[in-house]
Design brief:
By secondary structure, the protein is mainly alpha-helical. The chain has one domain. Helix content is 76%, strand content 0%. The chain starts with 20 loop residues before the first helix and ends with a helix.
Length: 114
């Protein structure tokens, strides 16, 4: 037999969900855009290394592309610690907005250089 629950404590409460779906969806889009950079960099990394170092053998090319990809991930690791400290000090929303606009501005700046 299933135990009976006493739902009297729920009377008078609104039946809406406490989950802020709009904010969750926006945060999901921001995180998806951030993760896209990780997926994107590993797809063209060997070609970029080959462009800058055409004399490398296939084994050396793979090694250098792996080192460069690892450096990207290590930078993300240390950057996450720094952004965590910024978030603790300033709050989550200002840290996310600062990181979002900073990424957009730096990406635009780097694209103009190329």
């Amino acid at each position: 037999m299933a135990p009976q629950t006493n739902a009297k404590h729920l009377e008078g409460l609104p039946r809406s969900s406490p989950v802020p779906y709009k904010k969750v969806v926006i945060l999901g889009f921001i995180l998806s855009a951030n993760n896209t950079s990780i997926w994107m960099i590993f797809s063209f990394l060997p070609f970029m290394v080959q462009h800058f170092f055409p004399e490398l053998t296939t084994a050396e090319l793979g090694y250098r592309a792996g080192i460069l990809g690892s450096a990207f991930s290590a930078g993300s690791l240390f950057g996450n610690v720094i952004w965590g400290l910024v978030s603790d000090r300033m709050g989550r929303r200002p840290a996310l907005l600062l990181g979002l606009f900073g990424t957009g501005n730096l990406s635009t700046f780097i694209a103009e250089l190329l």
